[in-house]
Amino acid sequence: MLSIRDLHVEVEGRPILKGLTLEVRPGEVHALMGPNGAGKSTLAAVLAGREGYEVTRGEILFEGKNLLELSPEERSYAGLFLAFQYPVEIPGVSMVQFLRAALNAHRAAAGLDPIETTDLMRLLREKAALLKLDPSFLSRSVNEGFSGGERKKAEIFQMAVLSPKLAILDETDSGLDIDALRIVSDAVNALRSPERAFLLITHYYRILQHVKPDFVHILAGGRIVRSGGPELALELEAKGYEQLVGA
Amino acid sequence: MSTPISASLSLEEGTAHLTELLRRSARESDFPSPLQELWSAQAAQAHLQQLFTELRHKEDWKYTPTDFFRFPWTLGSVELLAQSPFESALAPAEIVEPSEALPALRNFPTPASPWEALLIGASLRAHYRIARQGCVSWNFAGKGGLTTQLLTVSLEPHAEGEVWLVPQGEGFMIVRVHLHLSTGAQARVYVPTYLKAPNTYLYILLSAEQEAESRLEGYDLTAAVPWKRLEVKVRLSGKGAVAHLLGAARVGRGESMDYAIRVEHAAPHAESNQLFKSLVYPEGRSAFQGRIYVHRQAQKTNAYQSHKALLWDRKAVAYSRPQLEIFADDVRCTHGVTTGFMEGEILTYLRTRGIPEAQARQLLAQAFLEEVLGRVPHEGLQEVARGWLAV
Question: How far is CA B151 from the centre of its chain?
Fold first, then answer.
């Protein structure tokens, strides 16, 4: 599904990723861990198509297509979703308006007619319930005045609505209290399926206790330095980055 | 500016020419003496140099492009249209003969400058009196050239009125409006503007005097016009008077839109609110100058002012200048200005959700102006303006 080979990325001339290789197949959950500054968020940004990142070497294939040639919206239509580490506020645009526009853009790309309002509202209410969000949340402006936890839940809510093939969660667990972490984890687990893959970018072991990964990778110095099963996260928790990878 | 400007006159010559035209149009005046004498004297002083220097040095003209003054204008004509594009629930207001019995004429503000004095005699004039309920539908159409209009509206105690200033046509249209709200009177003023003709310059100078417990609401919705300046001067002279002034402007390529708003609190327990938003396209130019002036005796004043500008990109220009002058010590006054570009993170965020950039910008632009549009109490206007303002 996602195939990253020898990826080198620079930000303002500074090399951040230095030969990252990663293979994600449908149905898998990969956890990408690493110390601060390892390049985790850079990878997320490059995958989503954010500006300011220069790929100097390597390739990324998504469903066989060259991902780097696609615009951010085309990546979204292809089935890629990024839950932002710092979701932005969209003043004056309600969640309903926002997701109606997003869904209809997806539908238009697939040659479908715009969604009926009743269908839209049914879908949004159903997914809001999954995240235990109050229905009033749908009429509020996107992320405006939301707490850190609400913003993260809102990201997972959007993911549930857009139903991507590959979801990248960039430190979604950061800043969540225990209850919110549980709700977000349950929602992610509910969305796991043989067709859908997840890439969880995190600093912490605790989300992996709720969302069991198939693979754990440790990113350090712009490359994946170790890969393993869930036990690698446990080992990391016990020993720390420095002892484990010398980072 | 997309409009071709004739370079055949220097700015001094152009201004002199303009002065003469205004003076000619001001020969006749509706105003009762001694006001008329005062104005005539002021108008006479308004010679070239004075007017020219005045505008150049007046703070609130600082950000206003005035190059088009040098266009060799001729006196044009303007006509009133019987048909209004907007329906009012109120019956047409009564037009009356000018007299000192009309509070709006009796208390017409002394012009602050010769420039204003020149505007008081006008090619098109009307005086309205609203005793209980009435609507002033001032639908005017410029036929080119320089035209001036004068309108006064006197609302009697507890009367309810609407004033629609709806410009059409073209030319350099100067509109001077004065409202007098007697005790407990209520007025709503609507200024919807959608003018596509290239040589079109709209200067509206609206003043209002508000007695106790009166309420004024102003709604400016500007979607297209090469040049527009809306100057508002509200004086809250009676206890508990309320003025809410709102504006939403979409300033297109090569256009210039100017708000110069002054709210004067001269009595205690009055309330005022200014909310203006400008969406500025590349090569568009917006200016907002808002002033709240609180007199010493105006204790327990509540006054708010906010201007927000959203710039399409780095080629859009917005000036914002909020000012507070407070001489009372027990008041609540706030002002805020924000100016931001439509770019970066927020657009990327929308695009990662599948919303293409053009549509993302449209969504942001509409949401930005909706804060004002949503508060317009006239549904028909809301709907029309939404269509105008849609990108």
Answer: 14
